[in-house]
Design brief:
Length: about 270
């Protein structure tokens, strides 16, 4: 692969940008073609053009076993469908190298915060496929320090929090405030508490937020609907995950061992 070929591709794209400034889609396709030409140390030369791409960050809220598995202490409604969609979002993020900022609730077993997500219990752990290999976890605490290139060097940042609102946690507040993206895509649960506080906090800070309504779980249907209306009223975009990812035939979830997630319930109903 010669440098000449890449140079001529750049020229072609520059001409395209000058001639038809509004054809973003065409430009992105050309950039994808250009990316496939990239080899070794030629990459830095063309990096500035790639910054034209839309930068997205997935905000993965409290996808922990206590909230999303049938045997968790506070499992959301419709956990099978929500887990399947969360799995798809995470697969998409992995494929397209979209960075993920996750929050997890972590409560002191001797505290007064109920019995959900107690540190040291299995329920506090994240659902396995919501974890990326290159990740960095911050414990909850009252410091706000973190390194500047955190999101460059990691695919996922996990922020532990002591309450449902991530903006109560000093470091999480700072990281979420300083994270820059053209769109923040929110998944997780539960809609009426953690997701609501996260989304409203992001909107207050001027971020563009999209909530995948079928990839967020809730405990109470009516409270969740009210919460989604609040988010929309404040400027969040509400879409289904197929709008972002296209249709999928994925039905099985794997993370959860309940009959419904393993596809057994439907069979039992049919044979009955
Ligand atoms: Zn299940």
């Amino acid at each position: 692969m010669s440098i000449k070929v890449i140079k001529s591709s750049i020229l072609r794209i520059e001409v395209c940008i000058r001639a038809e400034p509004n054809k973003d889609v065409q430009r992105i396709n050309d950039m994808e073609a250009l990316k496939t030409l990239m080899i070794g140390d030629v990459v830095p030369m063309i990096r500035p053009i790639l910054t034209l791409r839309k930068k997205r960050i997935v905000i993965d809220v409290d996808t922990q076993k206590d909230f999303f598995l049938a045997d968790g202490k506070a499992c959301v409604r419709n956990h099978r469908r929500v887990l399947a969609n969360i799995r798809r979002v995470m697969a998409w993020a992995r494929r397209d190298q979209v960075r993920v900022i996750s929050t997890v609730q972590c409560h002191n077993p001797n505290g007064h915060d109920g019995d959900v997500c107690l540190s040291g219990t299995p329920g506090v752990c994240k659902v396995p496929y919501t974890l990326r290999n290159r990740r960095f976890t911050f414990d909850s605490g009252d410091t706000t320090d973190f390194s500047r290139d955190l999101l460059q060097n990691n695919d996922q940042i996990i922020l532990c929090k002591r309450s449902t609102d991530p903006f109560d946690e000093p470091r999480a507040e700072r990281i979420l405030t300083e994270a820059k993206a053209s769109e923040f895509i929110v998944i997780g649960g539960s809609t009426e508490t953690s997701v609501l506080y996260t989304v409203l906090g992001m909107l207050t800070r001027g971020k563009s937020v999209t909530v995948l309504i079928d990839a967020v779980g809730s405990s109470e249907k009516s409270a969740a609907e009210i919460s989604l209306r609040k988010m929309k009223a404040k400027g969040a975009k509400l879409i289904e995950s197929k709008t972002l990812l296209g249709h999928s035939s994925l039905r099985q979830v794997n993370a959860c061992q309940c009959d419904r997630c393993r596809g057994k319930l439907r069979k039992a109903t049919l044979s009955a």
